[in-house]
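ok trying again, last paste got cut off:
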Amino acid sequence: MPVAEMDQPEQPQDVPAPGPITVPIDKIRANRYQPRKNFDQEKLAELAASIKENGLAQPIIVSYDEQNGSYELIAGERRLRACELAGIKEIEVIVRTGHTDKQRLAISLVENLQREDLNSIEAALGYLRLMKEFQISQTELTKVVGKAKSSISNTLRLLELPDNIQKAIHDGSITEGHARAILMVDDDSKKQELLNKIVENGLSVRDAEDLARAVGGIENRDVKIRKSHKKSAKSADVREIETALQHHLGTKVDIRTSKEASKGVISIHFYSLTDFDKIVNILKK
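nice, full thing came through this time. structure:
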């Protein structure tokens, strides 16, 4: 469902033609539907210095309010803030039509969601708002924002996570890949445990996925074994013992046997000294 189909009003005669045009910054009001919530002040200052030196490389996008002759920001709040910080009085804009609240919401969210610099939680909240406001399905949403349905579904699932884990994604402590690994674990306390280990030990996404399978008791049957380790297929008995040990120790366990299965190696992974002490204490019992 393209944005143009969402409650498209007739174009009033006194609306400025689509830009670019130059308008006073004080005629532009903030975007009520901005998905982005955090702006890095240091990077904002750097952008302001660049704009002051070289000018604005790309116009911001606004809608026009014919009732009071002002503009509402649709996309480009970071650039607008940087221009204000640089003391610039006028700014180049592109004017988009859209005069109802719903249409401004659609244009604003679509413009921002198609940018690559939103974090996953901001994007998920934007998707959810579009679906609720316009009562559209995920399939219809793919046409609006130009994203694959699987990508939208995976991003929306992040909103199922506890608030503090969503905050960790929002502030960049973990990535969307880490968050998807945490979603593999059902128990909330284990989710928190996994989050702490990811942050404290700087785990890669792959390590986080391995640990999620271990602490969640998830059998590793459908996961490709790294070629460097794959010498022979594990028997069902070995996989069963491996899974039982992982569940008991709360960490990844890897059992490798020789061809004749009469000898081999058991690898028990730990991700911090606290993990190590915990595992040792369990083994001593």
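cool. Residues 161-284 form one domain. Confidence is low (pLDDT under 50) at residues 3-15, 219-232.
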